[in-house]
């Protein structure tokens, strides 16, 4: 029985792999996959903390959510780092397009995400021309 209990716990410890690789492979994961949509909203805070999003996913979430707020597509994510409560990312956004493009105005936004990738705050930290090199 102890071995069976360990197997049942494995998908909970590795949720990102369990969803992609474990679909339909055994009855317990198949039944939990069927309820995965509602499971995310019903989880306790401890279970969600164990499911901190990866750095690449945090970068995508930061760019997507900032685009939703600003109405402008981000050009790039120039930095991402973990924090105690989630993630912090710097997202570069084209604020004003000009000709020539090197004179277009860019802005760097600092985005704070919780451990699940939900935007908690953002602030513009810098404005610069696209042709500007090196200065912070």
Strand order of the largest sheet: 1-2-3-4
CATH class of the largest domain: Alpha Beta
Largest sheet: 4 strands, antiparallel
Order of helices and strands: HHHHHHEEEE
Helix and strand arrangement:
Elements: H1 2-13, H2 15-21, H3 27-34, H4 36-42, H5 45-49, H6 55-70, E1 74-82, E2 86-96, E3 105-114, E4 119-129
Antiparallel strand pairs: 1-2, 2-3, 3-4
Explain what this protein looks like in three dimensions:
The protein contains six helices and four strands, in the order H-H-H-H-H-H-E-E-E-E. It has a four-stranded antiparallel sheet with strand order 1-2-3-4. It has helices spanning 2-13, 15-21, 27-34, 36-42, 45-49, 55-70; strands spanning 74-82, 86-96, 105-114, 119-129. The chain is elongated. It is α+β, with helices and mostly antiparallel strands and 136 residues long. It has two domains: 2-49, no CATH class; 55-129, Nuclear Transport Factor 2, Chain: A (Roll).
